[in-house]
UniProtKB/TrEMBL annotation:
<dbReference type="InterPro" id="IPR029058">
    <property type="entry name" value="AB_hydrolase_fold"/>
</dbReference>
<keyword id="KW-1015">Disulfide bond</keyword>
<dbReference type="InterPro" id="IPR001563">
    <property type="entry name" value="Peptidase_S10"/>
</dbReference>
<dbReference type="Pfam" id="PF00450">
    <property type="entry name" value="Peptidase_S10"/>
</dbReference>
<comment type="function">
    <text>Probable carboxypeptidase.</text>
</comment>
<keyword id="KW-0732">Signal</keyword>
<dbReference type="InterPro" id="IPR033124">
    <property type="entry name" value="Ser_caboxypep_his_AS"/>
</dbReference>
<dbReference type="InterPro" id="IPR018202">
    <property type="entry name" value="Ser_caboxypep_ser_AS"/>
</dbReference>
<keyword id="KW-0964">Secreted</keyword>
<feature type="signal peptide">
    <location>
        <begin position="1"/>
        <end position="24"/>
    </location>
</feature>
<keyword id="KW-0325">Glycoprotein</keyword>
<keyword id="KW-0645">Protease</keyword>
<protein>
    <recommendedName>
        <fullName>Carboxypeptidase</fullName>
        <ecNumber>3.4.16.-</ecNumber>
    </recommendedName>
</protein>
<keyword id="KW-0121">Carboxypeptidase</keyword>
<keyword id="KW-0378">Hydrolase</keyword>
<comment type="similarity">
    <text>Belongs to the peptidase S10 family.</text>
</comment>
Length: 497
């Protein structure tokens, strides 16, 4: 299956990789393309600070009576029996444009689900689906067998810790759409934040029992933009209304795009320190490349170093440098023996087949308007991205100042938005250390390392995880989210984990 998304034009400022040729890993290909465009002065992407929309037209929130019941998913095709409820459907975010976002919601599998928080998960791209990645191959309750037809349970699903909401956003991603197709060339960070916010207001009308529930937002990669921007929008409108419209308590972002300059520098330093590129190439990058946000020129010396890096990493999964690749993207008649603990690098292929089945779409209440394109893990209809601030550090600082819990995690085998990038970005915030760097434990082993800063910010690595942390270290990821939601520090002893 050779499908190139719009993001995958010629690569010249980014590391590309083999796996981009299938559906695998398009999430970060999308990111690479965005970075490339942002470096070009001519792309017209606005890199200025995020500007929230202050006035949200009340007419965008509609009564939702009876819609929750209609969204209940009886059973997904090929699904094992479970004891929690699932819902899926559309929420209209702009009636006049005919724009609607698709969500998939799984209630907690826990005897006290009524008291467990509501957690929204967003994937990045921009343009990639939280159903493709988050729900079906990272933290959702099911994974798809290699036959593309049946599902098996993920025993480390995050719905053991929360009621989890997956949203395909913005319109043009996955099953989400707009009847005004010109919306697809007007996408960007600001519009995504507003649509996500309007989605939440309407969704809470549909599921009013969650209105007062503690609410958290989590996401990875380019959701390093979406999550803080949505949080900022929520706080702004709570303040304007002088009441808690949405009971937001905290955010969690992983392998997140935070600050272009440090993200870029950190990536090349990671490749060097992990013996993937030569000292000479690393020196060339340091000497000739300028990652400053207002630099739009790439010197030929810098380009030569980048070309070398592209060659060195071409046959690697740069999003998990020690992982195997997907060598055969055919479905199997008989499902391969599944293993949640050992992530199958061909998972994207199975998910693509599953979600494009008519019976699956019907069961999920998806694609009700019969869209003219396939469901894709990363959008092929969004063709322009209008705004993408070069940094979201000021928003993170504002969220902390407003008392939100802010956690930043990092799978330490990701080479694309690696742990070095995240450390440099956090360093830029100049926060004093509250709890010194120490290993955190799970099952008597080091789950990763953590440092807590005054302010309050928790940084945690997840050992042995690539870009999609819950895919590669599902048990450690579940432990991380439990501690985040409980607001408890990651354990500094192996005695009680
Ligand atoms: C709100 O939306 C309605 C319907 O789209 C429109 O008629 C009205 O002018 C809008 N109001 C404002 C203040 O933008
Ligand atoms: C988009 O158009 C289809 C076909 O006219 C209609 O059924 C659907 O309700 C529209 N979507 C929205 C969100 O208005
Ligand atoms: C906001 O609400 C609080 C209590 O509900 C009230 O005391 C306060 O005066 C309100 N502030 C504004 C600016 O309306
Ligand atoms: C990087 O580029 C920016 C913008 O063009 C420029 O102001 C800055 O001096 C450059 N930095 C270095 C180290 O050359
Ligand atoms: C790929 O897998 C399919 C299904 O298991 C198999 O029939 C086919 O022979 C394999 N192709 C290669 C090149 O290994
Ligand atoms: C929606 O359904 C149509 C008709 O069955 C199909 O051709 C299309 O691929 C589907 N699109 C999506 C996004 O699921």
């Amino acid at each position: 299956m050779e499908r190139y998304p719009f993001f995958l034009l010629t690569l010249f400022f980014v590391v590309s990789s083999m796996v981009a040729r299938t559906h695998c890993q398009k999430q970060t290909q999308a990111l690479s393309q965005l970075y490339r465009n942002k470096m070009k002065g001519s792309s017209g992407i606005n890199k200025g600070h995020f500007k929230p929309i202050h006035h949200i037209n009340n007419s965008r929130v509609h009564p939702q009576e009876g819609m929750k019941e209609k969204d209940r998913i009886q059973m997904l095709p090929g699904q094992p029996r479970v004891s929690f409820e699932q819902y899926g459907g559309y929420v209209t975010v702009d009636k006049s444009a005919g724009r609607a976002l698709y969500y998939y919601f799984v209630e907690a599998q826990h005897y006290s689900k009524e008291s467990l928080p509501l957690l929204l998960w967003l994937n990045g791209g921009p343009g990639c689906s939280s159903l493709a990645y988050g729900a079906m191959e990272e933290l959702g309750p099911f994974r798809v067998h290699s036959n593309g037809e049946t599902l098996y349970k993920n025993r480390y699903s995050w719905n053991y810790a929360a009621n989890v909401l997956f949203l395909e956003s913005p319109a043009g991603v996955g099953f989400s759409y707009s009847n005004t197709t010109s919306d697809y060339i007007k996408s960007g960070d600001s519009k995504t934040a507003v649509d996500n916010y309007v989605f939440l207001l309407n969704w809470l009308e549909r599921f009013p029992e969650y209105k007062k529930r503690e609410f958290y937002i989590a996401g990875e990669s380019y959701a390093g933009h979406y999550v803080p921007q949505l949080a900022h929008t929520i706080l702004l409108h709570n303040k304007k209304a002088n009441k808690t419209l949405i009971n937001l308590k905290g955010i969690l972002i992983g392998n997140a795009v935070i600050n272009d300059e440090t993200d870029n520098k950190g990536m090349y330093d990671y490749l060097e320190s992990h013996a993937l590129i030569s000292d000479e190439t690393a020196y060339g990058v340091k000497k000739y490349c300028n990652f400053s946000s207002d630099n739009s020129e790439i010197s030929s010396e810098c380009q030569a170093a980048i070309d070398e890096i592209t060659k060195d990493t071409y046959y690697l999964d740069i999003y998990n440098i020690y992982a195997p690749l997907c060598h055969n993207s055919s479905l199997t008649l008989i499902p391969k023996k599944p293993s949640v603990a050992n992530f199958d690098p061909c998972s994207d292929v199975y998910i693509y087949a599953y979600l494009n089945r008519a019976d699956v779409q019907e069961a999920m209440h998806a694609n009700v308007t019969k869209l003219d394109h396939d469901w894709e893990p990363c959008s092929e209809v969004i063709s322009r991205w209008g705004d993408s601030p070069s940094t979201i550090i000021p928003i993170l600082q504002e969220l902390m100042a407003n008392g939100l819990r802010v956690w930043i995690f990092s799978g330490d085998t990701d080479g694309r938005v690696p742990v070095t990038s995240t450390k440099y970005s956090i360093k830029k915030m100049k926060l004093p250390v509250k709890t010194k760097w120490h290993p955190w434990y799970l099952d008597g082993e080091v789950g990763g390392y953590t440092e807590v800063y005054k302010g309050d910010l928790t940084f945690a690595t997840v050992r042995g995880a690539g870009h999609q942390v819950p895919s590669f270290q599902p048990k450690r990821a579940l432990s991380l989210i439990k501690h985040f939601l409980a607001g408890t520090p990651l354990p500094d002893t192996s005695r009680y984990d």
